[in-house]
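Example record

Each entry pairs one chain with its bound ligand, 5'-O-[(L-methionyl)-sulphamoyl]adenosine.
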Amino acid sequence: MHPKSKGAFYITTPIYYVNDVPHIGHAYTTVAADILTRFKRLEGYHAFFLTGTDEHGQKVEKAAQERGVDPKAHCDEMVKRFQSLWQRLNISNNDFIRTTEARHKKVVQKILQDLYDRGEIYQASYEGWYCVPCERFWTEKDLSEGKCPDCLREVVDISEKNYFFRMSKYQSWLIEHIEKNDRFILPSSRRNEILGFLRGPLEDLCISRPKKRLMWGIEIPFDTDYVTYVWFDALINYVTGIGYGSGENSFSDFWPQAIHLIGKDILTTHTVYWPTMLNGIGLTPPKTVFAHGWWTVEGKKMSKSLQNVVEPNRLIDIYGVDAVRYFLMREVSFGMDGDFSHSAMIHRINSDLANDLGNLFSRALSMVIRYFDGAIPTPSSLKEIDQRLQDVSGKVLAQLPIQMNDLAFNKALVTLWEIVSASNKYVDETAPWALAKEEKDRPCLSTVLYQTLESLRITALLLAPFMPSTAEKMWSQLGMETNLWEQRLDEGGTWGGLKPGKRVAKPTPLFPRIDASKIGIE
Ligand code: MSP
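Structure tokens for the complex follow.
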């Protein structure tokens, strides 16, 4: 770890099923995790970011069968779609885990064997209702009008021998853990949901599937007729990814300072199965599991049959990567459901990005080029109005880390835009173009432009986790020669980082305005 590091921080996304191509829901969690990681790095933490793919189980096996290919070949092909999307989205993950990798299989089998040897896993006959798409069993009373209570699809009656993890015995421990750690499940509404769920009896978890029904999984080490239940396999990725069981000390560096970002539909697996599994192997649960909401599309649930699945690559082609990242984080408060629409996207780009930020940036640079031949002027003594602008940055710098700590991405962006609005107002009120007319106003003009550019430098620094390429562009056009990604909030956020005399670049528009009629939307 870097000697100046504030400590370690571990951030994960769910590992995505490779039964289909990535959509906006996958992009959402991954972008959020990336922003959080980049922000933590900016704060000086040694942040490790893991994402990956969930490649076993019935869903993937079925998808491969339908395409007439071998499951591993199918995974190898699909995983590329995720990896190339993450590259296009500028995702800065430190590792990418695939559950079909040997490093992962080894850990899953080791954990299973250990639990089995200690009597935490036992074999029993099971009769129940099984939902194939959800890959889980339900009891008669769980069913909703005879169908799966989660997805409302048909269930099948199954009777077979299986292996079970003694999850039920951890129920009271889990309740106590949730009650004692108010940041374990966030937002708090989700915490209440799980505490409510735990008021009913918690059953043991079926962790195997007979090979006669499913071949595509990690073989159970103590019974070769079975493979591992896909969720038991998948959840373990979070510890495999940082070297659990490999003898490397990176694991103890990061665990349990972990934040798992997930969607609301996979809350139970992450806040009931996962912590009990961890407790079973003697590990403390992660610090936080944060469940975000779901996106609908133009008011409707996203589904293949409605053909309204939003393909992130297409959005990037139309709007550009940073506009997509910005929209996803700005439009909806993290934790709530939200609606994607092209009109909302275009509105955000034109008003917040092109108008508020982009115009301000080009105006400011153009004035430095026109009035000072491109050299950053030296500020003279500050008037109250100049100081006020500087104070806005100070306030924002103090507030943003608190909001980011709460994963309130949209609030953080609103806060950051306070600098942008204050700077726009400042430029309007100080009217540098008028100051430029009189030689006696030169010192004033220098101060105004310096203050504006310095606000923009701090904006670029704080924007970097959200919009990495835009921030880089701003940073270099402002004449900053340092590497943006080596900046730390405390030093980089200190007022006065711009060096008078350094040359700014000729501005290129950060965000061209979008005309809906010209891009064939609607
Ligand atoms: N493979 C499991 C996760 C295992 S983690 C140990 C899985 N994969 S998934 O590909 O089906 O879904 C991944 C994530 O996408 C989930 O967090 C889910 O909430 C999210 N989303 C799927 N559709 C979504 C929306 N429409 N909106 C937002 N997120 C959505 O579950």
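The chain has a mean pLDDT of 95.
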